[in-house]
Every structure is written in structure tokens, then in C-alpha cells.
Amino acid sequence: MSCDECFKGVRHEGQPEGRIEQIGGIECYVATPAGDYDKSKVVLFLTDVFGIPLVNNKLLADDFARNGFRTVMPDLFNGDARPADSMGNQNFDRAAWTAKHGPDSWKPILDAVVDALQADGVTWIGTTGYCFGAPPAWYLALKGVSKVTVVSHPSRLRAPEDLEEYRDKVKAPLLINSCENDPTFPQDAQAMADELLGGGKFAPGYERTYWDGCTHGFAVRGDLSNPKIKAGKEGAFEATVKFFKRYQHL
């Protein structure tokens, strides 16, 4: 499921510091920590529908790099990300765009990037998936590729089916950054995740943050002039970094 908020948001300001590289033949935005860092570890940044072109995504990737993680953002859309300047454009044919970008389109992209990273000595991959990026994060966890999974305001996750599958088949700890108003992962689905995975039921580790006053997209496209959304965006990022660092030795 997707919603109107999946295709809306606010463009943030800043100058990205990473660069575009080809990894496994796939265009990727790569943010690299300054100074020494563990080259065996990579965070895979799995974007919303706006992909690499959206400055917000690149700035977030840079922030992960500042916290010590080389961060790789693959182009999940093969050059066809939703244009950033089309946010809120009611004339955009969302259904047609979505039909072109199902799992059969992005799974080979992820496989190529992961194979290339592993061939280059990467042994630890953490994923952070935003909105559209949640199913790709699930995919890598189910394949046993990722050591840690984080999703923020996830879309296209079935509750309870995908939550149960994660519980039964995955060994990677899971963090979900959720919010008050999210049609794609509403509060009943959030409660279902807690029931299935919380309270020690998911042995590898499970956490969920909840951000009052925030809407779907808050962690990457939120309006930072709104204090609650700013707190949610910054809080979700901090929770994600802490989660990665807690499990970086897996």
C-alpha cells in the first residue's frame, strides 16, 4: 500500500558531500566517513520513491557517514525515481509509476550491489529503509544478507503476514520508526508488530519508536519548521544510529 504522503514532502537544504559511484554496475550515492573507519561495514540506504535525486536522502546518507558508517544508496529505480520537483503534483500518474517498480525491478539491483560489496570485503550490512525502501530491507533480511534492519514509516508491508515471516525466518535485529499518522503502517499494524515481536518474543532484538504529531514521511521529508516533526526526524535518525552501533559486532 502507498498513500498520498508517500508522494509529498518538503525538500531540505544543504550541500551533499558524497559522490556517485558505480557498484556492481549500479549507480549509487556513496557517503564515506572522514578519517579511519571500518571498511568491512556498510549501511545500505534504501530510499523512498524520490531516490538519489532528492537532496534529503543524500543529506541523511552523509549524516550516517558522519557517524562512522560508509553509506551506500543504490538507485532502486534505474534512473526513473519520482522527480523531487513533483512532490504534491496531483497530475502525476502514481499507479503507472508504481507498476514499473515492483520487486522484479529492484531485486536484481540490490543483488548486484550486495554481490559487489561482499566481493570487496564487506561482511556487515545494515539496512535503513524509508517508505518504498522497507520491502527491499525485508528482502535482504530474509535472504540473510543484512545483519541489522531499520525501517521508517514503512510502506507495502503486510500485517501480520510480513511481520510473522520476519519473526519466523530472520535473525537480524529490527527497529521500526513509526508515527502517529501513517496510512501505510497505521497504529493497528504498529500494535501488531509489538505483539508479534516485542516483549522478547523476537530473540535477535526488536524496538519500535513512536513519534507523536508526525505523519508518513517524517524521517526523510518532514517539514522541519514543525517542532514535533523536527523532533521525530532527528529522533528517528538518532535511534537508527544507536541501533546500528549496538549490533555492529554481529
List keywords for this structure.
single chain, 250 residues, alpha/beta, 8 helices, 21% strand
Poorly predicted runs: 1-11
- The count of β-strands is 8
- Helix run count: 8
- How far from one another are the termini? 32 Å
Series of H and E elements? EEEHEHHEHEHEHEHH
How much of the polypeptide forms β-strand, as a percent range?
15-25%
Sheet with most strands: 8 strands, mixed
Per the principal axes of the C-alpha atoms, what is the gross shape? globular
Structural class: alpha/beta
Gyration radius (Cα, Å) is 17 Å
Mean pLDDT: 93
Strand order of the largest sheet: 1-2-4-3-5-6-7-8
Helix fraction bin: 25-40%
Mind explaining what this structure looks like?
- The protein has 8 helices and 8 strands.
- The protein is an alpha/beta fold.
- The chain has an 8-stranded mixed sheet, with helices on both faces.
- Helix 3 crosses helix 4.
- The longest helix has 20 residues.
- The protein is globular, with a radius of gyration of 17 Å.
- The two termini are 32 Å apart.
Would you kindly provide a brief summary of this structure?
The chain is of the alpha/beta class and 250 residues long.
Topology:
Blueprint: E1 19-23, E2 26-31, E3 41-46, H1 55-66, E4 70-74, H2 94-99, H3 103-119, E5 124-130, H4 134-142, E6 148-152, H5 161-169, E7 174-181, H6 187-197, E8 206-215, H7 218-221, H8 227-246
Helix pairs in contact: 3-4
